[in-house]
Specification:
Blueprint: E1 6-7, E2 32-39, E3 42-43, E4 47-50, H1 61-65, E5 68-70, E6 73-77, E7 83-86, H2 88-101, H3 109-122, E8 134-143, E9 156-165, E10 173-177, H4 195-199, H5 202-210, E11 215-219, E12 227-230, E13 234-239, E14 243-247, H6 257-268, E15 272-276, H7 280-288, E16 292-299, E17 303-312, E18 315-318, H8 327-339, E19 350-352
Parallel strand pairs: 1-4, 10-11, 10-17, 14-15
Antiparallel strand pairs: 2-3, 2-4, 2-9, 5-8, 6-7, 6-8, 7-19, 8-9, 11-12, 13-14, 13-16, 16-17, 17-18
This protein binds 2-OXO-4-methylpentanoic acid.
């Protein structure tokens, strides 16, 4: 049943300010946002309002202790020009897992899905259609108590806003194997989309950039010998275009929805997919023997982020020409094709909104 969401329409659309041919990721926002607040142990009345600043207290507990989570999703237009979402229930479930891990209340499916759907339908003119583009959707929740003691907040806000985007990485990236800093270790919140997981990534990425890399490959906290993720994406390695490897979901890895889509599509196509511990040395040896045919990251924003070279202990290992890669190019074409309704959706991943 559709929620009754109060809609306060933006009287002044900003769409004329958006240059749809040259969109920079995350810099321009659509006309509306969905909002619902949590207090007295329950979610209050939801509304859709003009996109704009929100007022917060300097003591807002999310700012001090990081009780803040988010999702990344996308809306697309199908060939009939109608808006559609990709696997939104998986994002909803992951969002509530993140909420659980951070001691926050669960959002209801009705609020999450209806809020998202009504917002996207209202702002559907903002969905770009150029190859590789989409309307990026950012559901997030944060603690709103104005209280400086350390305990779970009693009050929260859940907001969704949208921004038209192109591909997150405009070109293949060069990554450095990170062996000093760690993204997550056993028992931490690596499998949750907690804001703090991204906050702690800034310094390692900045240091890698100073050394000439675009991003890092995170390694495990215990030994720094095993690959975990790359930047904000899950990570895949392909051996001789036959065997596809990705780190297993051991609690430290984010269970990516694009990651899962890739695994399902690859298996259906007859590839052997191994979810396991992946030793960096094993991959470097494969690269030296020209057996490492493809390496890429996967995520909602990037879809597929092709990795052009890997830096390990001061040496750069250049990988095969990204243009000619079999697996990553096929995956991008297939996933983006399903998302935009140009490829058959045999797994029922698409939710049509109209
Ligand atoms: C996503 O792929 O949605 C991400 O989380 C990456 C990001 C822009 C933080």
């Amino acid at each position: 049943m559709a929620s009754s969401i109060k809609i306060n329409k933006n009287p002044q659309s900003q769409i004329h300010l958006c240059d749809f041919e040259n969109i920079e990721f995350g810099k321009i926002f659509s006309d509306h946002m969905f909002r619902v607040d949590y207090k007295d142990g329950k979610w209050q009345e939801p509304s859709i309002e003009p996109y704009g600043n929100i007022s917060i207290a300097p003591s807002l507990s999310a700012l001090h202790y990081g009780q803040s989570i988010f999702e990344g999703m996308k809306a697309f237009k199908n060939p009939e020009g109608k808006p559609q979402l990709f696997r939104p229930l998986d994002n909803f479930n992951r969002f509530n897992h993140s909420a659980y891990r951070m001691g926050m209340p669960a959002i209801t499916e009705e609020l999450f899905i209806d809020g998202l759907s009504q917002l996207v339908v209202l702002d559907q003119n903002w969905i770009p259609t150029k190859e590789g583009s989409a309307l990026y959707l950012r559901p997030f929740m944060f603690a709103t108590d104005d209280f400086v003691g350390v305990r779970a907040s009693n009050n929260y806000s859940f907001i969704i806003f949208c921004c038209p985007v192109n591909s997150y990485y405009p070109k293949p990236i060069k990554v450095k194997v990170e062996q000093k800093f760690v993204r997550a270790a056993n028992g931490m919140a690596g499998n949750a989309k907690a804001a703090g997981n991204y906050g702690i990534s800034m310094l390692p990425s900045m240091e890698a950039k100073k050394e000439g890399y675009d991003q890092i490959i995170w390694t495990d906290g215990a030994t720094h010998e095993y690959a975990e993720e790359s930047g904000t994406t899950n990570l895949f390695f392909v051996l001789e275009d036959k065997i596809v490897l990705t780190p297993k979901l051991d609690g430290n890895i984010l269970p990516g929805i694009t990651r899962d889509s890739c695994i399902q599509l690859l298996k259906a196509q007859g590839y052997e997919v191994q979810e396991r511990d992946i030793s960096i040395i094993e991959m470097i040896e494969a690269a030296k023997q020209n057996k490492l045919s493809d390496v890429f990251g996967t995520g909602t924003a990037a879809i597929i982020a092709k990795i052009a070279a890997i830096g390990y202990k001061g040496t750069d290992y250049v990988l095969p020409d990204p243009e000619k890669r079999v697996v990553s190019n096929w995956l991008f074409k297939t996933i983006y094709g399903i998302q935009t309704g140009k490829e058959a959706d045999v797994n029922n991943w698409v939710m049509k909104l109209q």
